[in-house]
Amino acid sequence: MDYGSKTVGVAISDALGITAQGIETITRKEENKLRKTCARIEALIQEYEVERIVLGLPKHMNNDLGARAEASLAFGEMLKRRTGLTVVMWDERLTTVEARRTLIENKVRREDRKKYIDKIAAVFILQGYLDSQVLSNS
């Protein structure tokens, strides 16, 4: 997941844990209004039989944690309590930049990019995690 102030980009892996696919962007009107967001995440967990949550941790380039990272950590703790699942915090530096570049390269119109950017960033976050699991198991 790519947790933002008003959106959560969601990706899911295939059954073998090899590839990540974006499934949706959950939106909310206010940052602290999370009830519907959490309900939607819980529904997706049931629908896709999720065993683990990978949540992006937006570190600064110097590895420091800022306000957004602290918000992501708090969100991760809340997800762990609500779902009972393991929440893996994954360094998401530059995933939004990479997602934007991918959308531009694929000629997605500027006004449409906002609809997809968080979902694509979630794909990059999850794919990075999946790739690390393959490397650590080889």
From the coordinates shown, what is the CATH architecture?
2-Layer Sandwich
Structural class: alpha+beta
Radius of gyration: 14 Å
CATH homologous superfamily, by name? YqgF/RNase H-like domain
In the predicted model, the low-confidence regions spanning at least 5 consecutive residues are none
Task: List the SSEs and their pairings.
Layout lengths: L1 E2 L3 E7 L6 E8 L7 H14 L3 E6 L9 H17 L2 E6 L3 H11 L4 H28 L1
Parallel strand pairs: 4-5
Antiparallel strand pairs: 1-2, 2-3
Detailed description of the structure:
The chain is α+β, with helices and mostly antiparallel strands. It has a single domain, classed as Nucleotidyltransferase, domain 5, CATH 3.30.420.140. It has four helices and five strands. It has helices spanning 35-48, 67-83, 95-105, 110-137; strands at 2-3, 7-13, 20-27, 52-57, 86-91. It has a three-stranded antiparallel β-sheet with strand order 1-2-3. Strands 4-5 form a two-stranded parallel ribbon. Strand 1 (2-3) and strand 2 form a beta hairpin. The protein is globular, with a radius of gyration of 14 Å. The two termini are 26 Å apart.
What characteristics describe this protein?
single chain; 4 helices; 51% helix; 138 residues; alpha+beta; 21% strand; two-stranded parallel sheet; three-stranded antiparallel β-sheet; Nucleotidyltransferase, domain 5; 5 strands
